[in-house]
Design a protein that fits this description.
The chain is mainly β. It has 3 helices and 22 strands. The longest helix is centred in the C-terminal third of the chain and has 8 residues.
Length: 268
């Protein structure tokens, strides 16, 4: 498991679940595991890099981006990396970096490895997640005036499907490809889906509700800050500390002035 620890310098750490050890990987942000679990892509300064998860070799440049690039998800075969970047005209957009040929080598300057926009509109498009069969991308957009979860075919073009019915963020596919999860407020929602030969989606339903940490500020709509276990039976989520819980509690005192007058004698 890779975790990002914020601070004066954002750092990425690899936590070995079996040995319960924490090892620093890089001074960077926004990690994204490769499908084979051997490498982690991340943002350093504003560019895309990757590095072996065991730290055996230094990080290597995947792609230089004109605006900060944030890696999000890989296609199942490791040949495509979805990432976010932005422009003043189209705001937050979804781009794809092809890694053609040997996926163990960093992207170079070849035409086949040039990052390209996948969805760039005047609205914000975020959180692009490849389906397990790599034929679809789930993402979040505020094109309707609120953030909702959508699905489009990859590489496209083609019809789009709205997945959430009352707003939604942070999509994640079940590894079976038969369900699509997303969050709305403190609720974890799920939608039954069919991904082949064509796409279809059922009615959203709530799986559970709980006070689990959301990403801070605008990052809440950029990424999914939870994950689904390989058997689709468990979720890895961040539970807020007691201090964080207390910080969100507001106590309202009514009629405080009347109580104050009773406790403090009026001057004569």
């Amino acid at each position: 498991m890779v975790v990002q620890i914020p601070g004066a310098r954002n750092t990425l750490w690899v936590f070995d679940l079996a040995r319960e050890t924490l090892t620093q990987l890089a001074v960077a942000r926004y990690p994204a595991w490769t499908p084979n679990g051997k490498r982690v892509a991340f943002t350093f300064q504003q560019n895309l890099y990757w590095k072996p998860a065991d730290g055996s070799t230094p990080e290597e440049l995947l792609a230089a981006t004109e605006s900060p690039g944030f890696p999000v998800s890989w296609s199942a075969d490791g040949r495509f990396l979805s990432f976010l970047t932005s422009t003043p005209e189209t705001r937050q957009d979804i781009w794809v970096l092809p890694l053609v040929g040997d996926p163990s080598r960093p992207a170079g300057t070849g035409a086949g490895r040039k990052p390209r926009p996948w969805l760039a509109t005047p609205s914000n498009e975020t959180a692009p997640m490849f389906s397990p069969d790599s034929r679809w991308l789930a993402y979040v957009s505020n094109e309707s005036g609120r953030y909702d979860v959508y699905v489009r075919p990859y590489p496209g073009p083609g019809e789009k499907w709205q997945i959430s019915s009352e707003g939604g963020r942070q999509p994640a596919w079940a590894h079976s490809g038969r369900e699509l999860f997303y969050r709305t407020g403190d609720k974890m929602m799920v939608v039954d889906v069919t991904t082949g030969p064509s796409f279809s989606a059922g009615k959203p339903r709530m799986l559970f509700e709980g006070l689990y940490t959301h990403a801070a500020g605008p990052e809440e709509v950029l990424f999914s800050n939870y994950d689904v276990s390989p058997d689709d039976q468990r979720f890895l989520m961040i539970e807020p500390s007691q201090q964080e819980r207390n910080a969100t509690q507001i106590n309202v005192v009514l009629n405080w002035f009347e109580e104050l007058k009773q406790k403090v004698p009026t001057a004569k």
